Amino acid sequence: MDFLNILTGALGEIISPTTAAYALAALGLAVHFGYSGLLNFGQAGFMAMGAYGFAISTLTFNAPFWLAVLVALACSVGFAFLLGIPTLRLRADYLSIVTIAAAEVVRYIVTTNSLTDITGSAGGLNGFADGFYALNPFPEGTYNLGFISLSARDLWVRVAAWIVVAICCVIVWLLMRSPWGRVLKGIREDENAVRSLGKNVYSYKMQALVIGGVFGTLAGVLFTLPRSSVQPANYGSELTFFLWTCLLLGGMATVLGPVIGAMLFWVVLSLTQGLLYGAIGAGYITFISIPQAGQLRYIMVGIALMLLMIFRPQGVLGNKKELAFS
Amino acid sequence: MRTLPKLARPIGMLAFLLAVFASLLLSAPAVQAQTLAAPVSASTPSPSPSPESPASTPDSFPNTINGVLRNAGQPVAGVTIRATGEGFSGETVTSETGAWTIGVPVQGTYQVELDVTTLPEGVALAEGAQNPREVTFANTSNAGAIFPLGEGIVVQSQSFGELLAERMLAGLSFGLLLALASVGLSLIFGTTGLTNFAHGEMVTLGAVLMFFLAGLGLPIWLAAALAIVGGGLSGYIQDAGLWKPLRRRGSGIIPMMIVSIGLALAARYTIQLFFGGSTQQLPGARSPQIEFGAVSISQNTLQSLIISTIVVLVVSFLLLKTRIGKATRAVADNPALASASGIDVDRVIRLVWTVGGVLAALGGILWAYYRPGVTFNMGQQILLLIFAAVVLGGLGTVFGALLGSVIVGIFVEVSTIWLEADLKFVGALLIMIIVLLFRPQGILGRRERVG
């Protein structure tokens, strides 16, 4: 077992574009749930909007990079309205059921064989990120970051992804200390009290849903860029639940919580994968196989989610007073 | 009223025994049918799940297209069948039993062609039979293709009315098995306020337990009965070990909901750890078609329809007429008031969890026969339909869940007349969203502010 390799692999996860995508999508959930109390279990649907909106406009309509991103964002705003109009007036648990159902509807639609020409059905789409890599400002070569060395392409995707995450974090931070953010937190604490002050609660919730959804969509774009491929199976309800785990790990009504949560999530997953696979490869563990070790990690995520919720619902960074539920 | 909780256990047991008895009674013919149709034994269960091996040979692919070739009731062996599509092509020869299976790498649409030159003398494809024919996977890992054989036999083309009747019948059967799971979910929601995301895994548990028990060589009825007992136990243990302590702590509804998601993830992958990622068949999964005029239904589907109807009627009777049933409805209506009037709320909730587990396990077994096939994520696939049914009928109302399930079941099946098979769940989920727009409390829900 090569401990050094396992360790650097895990450290590399901290800055990987997938971690950035998870952090951004979890930040969207923080806007939804942490700040506004909206129980969105369909963040995977928003991510799928981003991934497919971007990929389809690039491949089918030959849209340039920026236009493709705008199309993805427009899709996500539309999706947010579609979800919000029927459910934002209802109790939180209705929103959760409708959002998870809508995300699954999106997944079924992009998987169906009748749309294979556009969505690639179960096989997905690939080869749509050329526009993004054409923007790469880094000259060809290998870049050594101490514990990890990257090609220019890998460096560019990481830099771009984390810049987007940083910008979104600043946006959330500014929004939440503005009067608008205070109204949102007020809605989270007591909807009726805010309504009695003459605020249009429904409209505020809708705005929060759209903003968090847009973050999810950007995350969906970031998620597909490194591989330049999109697979419908990646956008199942598990993805949403992993994002929730990231959010709860970090702390839900915080700006940096989701980012730290996503980093922790991926470092722990990578470490356990490295250690388990290494131990199996070296013959220390004989009672499980490699695929079973993969399942063991998901079991761990599930148990971690339960334990977090029961024993430390505020997460690593959170403040117990700022919980959307008590 | 103090004696009421004491009645809980015996009556609960009675309900449970009745349910087991009913399923016992009705699954007996299935055993016979299975032994008669025995030649199709390519998929007999084995206690050791096949590991997910890399797809090197066609047989090890996770998805299969299969069928049985028969001529006048006799199996036809040695016929070449070819599948092409999704950038893949595979070929197989029918076995002694007429059965054939082609493993394919991805679920999608395939052209399946029967090589007519390899048919034995005197056997031909029936007139009007499509060859090659298109086969599409519908969210399951196996798809069937039937080639009707026989000189001069004309394939009957169904009229729209007959097709509709057939789909309605299948939908009713599906809806009622859905009702088994959704009644449990609705009862749990009604009494504890929890939207249980782990309910799908309780459904899977029933089917997986039955698969393992049948693999041990137990007769089909005993395996089913024990699997249902296991489902009830899982409900009991869950409440005793997790949900009751959480209620004691005064956990809110949303934290408990998220805990149930964690539990669902952990349970799903624990099941996969032991069961593997492949699709397995329960004994007797292939059953003959029964014809009622032009409407045909498979024997398993019909039996499932009868079993779930009886169980649903028994549960309804218990809820409406017995003291414990009334107590359950009282707790669902207002736990504080029920508690004040002497009902042991915790005991009622424990019973509800146990019955919920029993019903979910039975639903899982029937769902495994309906699909057909057992997979580790079969419960996850049905969970949203259960939610749709419950929301459609009205969260927390038992009869709403029943009605919602039947509507969802029929809608899902009837929609396949127009929709692609792989989109059939979409319609049901959209219907749920639309109903929420106009009648948020559901069809049978009471009018109250849910916002």
Automatic annotation (TrEMBL), chain A:
The keyword Transmembrane applies. GO terms for molecular function: branched-chain amino acid transmembrane transporter activity. It is found in: Cell membrane. The chain crosses the membrane at residues 6-31, 65-85, 155-176, 208-226, 241-267, 274-290, 296-311. Keywords: Cell membrane, Membrane, Transmembrane, Transmembrane helix. It comes from the Bacteria. InterPro entries: ABC_transp_permease, LivM-like. GO terms for cellular component: plasma membrane. The keyword Transmembrane applies. CDD domains: TM_PBP1_LivM_like. It is a multi-pass membrane protein. Pfam families: BPD_transp_2. This is High-affinity branched-chain amino acid transport system permease BraE.
Automatic annotation (TrEMBL), chain B:
The keyword Cell inner membrane applies. It is found in: Cell membrane. Residues 40-67 are annotated as: Disordered. One of its GO terms (molecular function) is L-valine transmembrane transporter activity. The chain crosses the membrane at residues 168-190, 202-233, 253-271, 302-320, 351-370, 382-411, 417-438. Residues 1-33 form the signal peptide. GO terms for biological process: D-alanine transmembrane transport; L-alanine transport; L-isoleucine import across plasma membrane. It holds the Pfam family BPD_transp_2. One of its GO terms (cellular component) is plasma membrane. Belongs to the binding-protein-dependent transport system permease family. LivHM subfamily. PANTHER family: BRANCHED-CHAIN AMINO ACID TRANSPORT SYSTEM PERMEASE PROTEIN LIVH (PTHR11795), HIGH-AFFINITY BRANCHED-CHAIN AMINO ACID TRANSPORT SYSTEM PERMEASE PROTEIN LIVH (PTHR11795:SF371). This is Inner-membrane translocator.
